[in-house]
Structures are given as structure tokens and as C-alpha cells.
Amino acid sequence: MHEASIVLSLLDTLSDRCRQEGYRSIESVRLRIGMASGILPEAVTFAFEAAKHDTLAENAELVLDIVPLGGFCNSCRNDFEVSETYVLNCPLCGSDSFTIRKGYELDIVEMEVN
Ligand SMILES: [Zn+2]
Fold this sequence. Notes:
The chain has a domain at about 1-70 and about 105-114: hypothetical protein PF0899 fold, CATH 3.30.2320.50. It is about 25% helix and about 35% strand. The chain contains two helices and six strands, in the order H-E-H-E-E-E-E-E.
């Protein structure tokens, strides 16, 4: 499972940072996940709950901010958002000339430590 390896490397990164800064535990983690990133939020939550035991994040709460896929249409010059995980045409005018602006994120927004 793709998400499990993402979560494991995330926990490593967070734990390292936490230790380096002299903290003992991670209270919460907020991630931003784009709809088009190919990462399933439910799978990330599941993998995190499974992997956090015996780590500094044992009691951490995971918060996910889901970012819809969106772009700017070069034809009608509007910003748009779609609820799908892909976009083939501008939903406003049908043009296939557009620039994707968001939806591929996988970022750590913030981490609370103790
Ligand atoms: Zn358009």
C-alpha cells in the first residue's frame, strides 16, 4: 500500500525533527492532501493509526486538509475547481487549454509537539 510507506517516512521525518528540537511527543499533525495527488485520505488515516504505536506520535491526532483539484482556464480566463480526481476540460466552457494550480499537494502544514 502506497499510503503506508508515505506515512512511515512521514513519521520518521516528524520524529527526527521532534527529537532534534528536544521534544518528547507529537500531539497533532496537520497534512494537506490534494485530491489529484493519488493519495487516499482514508488510507493515510488508517496507516497513521496503525503505524503510530511505539513512536513519538503514539498519541498524536492526525488532521487532514483536503485540497480540491483546481486550475485556471486559458480560454474563458476563470479559476475553476472540480470534485473529481482528474480534469480533462474546463468545467465552465469545455476548453482543454488550462493550467492546473492545485490538487497535487502533500504537505505537512503543522505539527504540535510537547
Ligand atoms: Zn473555461
